[in-house]
Automatic annotation (TrEMBL):
This is Olfactory receptor. It is a multi-pass membrane protein. It is found in: Cell membrane. One of its GO terms (cellular component) is plasma membrane.
Length: 312
């Protein structure tokens, strides 16, 4: 790898996964294929939930915004890594790193928020069906989505402002394939990073509250489902709830392991694997997961791929 004198430049060096040139090229192609598949899947979800009249309920409205967040999140980290791998240098400028931190944390927080809103939507639909149209009215759904995007912007701003207000004393080498906040904190002088820890603690507390809300929603949902006399009714509920539960578990578990575990000077293969799961695989797999057991989505995908006109 071509290594610049990173201690005297204003940028950072992303070490990626390997110093071997052949492996760098291989990783670039693997990430490119994954990025194209993830982008196509999320774009299809966004398209059919916009055009198909059968997919205009609040559940699919929220799913569309989850796909928008996934597509945006993929575009923040993966193209930069592909470019760095093909170029043979992991150098990113100070501004590029700052923008990557802002957009990645904003979209990641937005995903936590939209998953929480989606769990509440499923709770109302299954446990309070007679009040669903009132509670989940179009106006309230729009306000909920607006809150998701605004809260993401606020968290991204807080993380970026505090992270880049610290002084970086050590060699600006990041053993990761993107500008990861925990790795950036290791480069700080003395106790400069404590304010970032405070912001992270506050957002973690809010995130944990969201997690508790999701858990409570599903406790009520499954309690209601198991009381249903109809096996067909239970199957229909599981087809919409289980994919959401899987997505929540995959994203929150891998993200938490990466951000809450102490960072080391030499990240293990498991550390890299966790980072790939919540930055690349999770947003890539979400469209597939939501489509597997949902007949309405599969019908919309078939219409789109077969170029069939969407009708009511």
């Amino acid at each position: 790898m071509f290594v610049r004198n990173i201690t005297t430049t204003s940028g950072f060096l992303l070490m990626g996964f390997s110093d071997n040139r052949e492996l760098q090229i291989l990783h670039a192609w693997l990430f490119l294929v994954t990025y194209l598949l993830g982008s196509a899947g999320n774009f299809i979800i966004i398209t059919i939930t916009t055009l198909d009249p059968q997919l205009q309920s609040p559940m699919y409205y929220f799913l569309k915004h989850l796909s928008l967040l996934d597509l945006s999140s993929l575009s923040v980290t993966v193209p930069q890594y592909i470019y760095n791998s093909l170029e043979g240098s992991g150098y990113v400028s100070y501004t590029q790193c700052m923008l990557q931190v802002f957009f990645f944390t904003a979209f990641a927080w937005g995903e936590v928020a939209i998953l929480t809103v989606m769990s509440y939507d499923r709770y109302v639909a299954i446990c309070l069906p007679l009040h669903y149209e009132v509670i989940m009215s179009l106006r309230k759904c729009i306000w909920a989505v607006a809150a998701v995007w605004v809260s993401g912007g606020i968290s991204g701003t807080l993380y970026t402002a505090t992270t880049f207000s610290i002084r970086f004393c050590r060699a600006k080498i990041i053993p990761q394939f993107f500008c990861d906040v925990p790795q950036l904190l290791k480069l700080s002088c003395s106790n400069d990073y404590l304010i970032v820890i405070g912001v992270a603690g506050f957002l973690s507390a809010v995130g944990f509250t969201c997690f508790i809300g999701i858990v409570l929603s599903y406790v009520h949902i499954f309690s209601t489902v198991f009381k249903m006399p109809s096996a067909e009714g239970r199957s229909k509920v599981f087809s919409t709830c289980l994919p959401h539960l899987f997505v929540v578990s995959l994203f929150l578990s891998t993200g938490s392991c990466s951000y809450l575990n102490p960072t080391s000077d030499s990240p293990t293969a498991l550390d890299f694997l966790f980072s790939i799961f919540y930055t690349v695989l999770s947003p890539t797999l979400n469209p597939v997961i939501y489509s597997l057991r949902n007949e309405t989505i599969k019908s919309g995908v078939r219409k789109l791929l077969l170029n069939t006109k969407f009708t009511g």
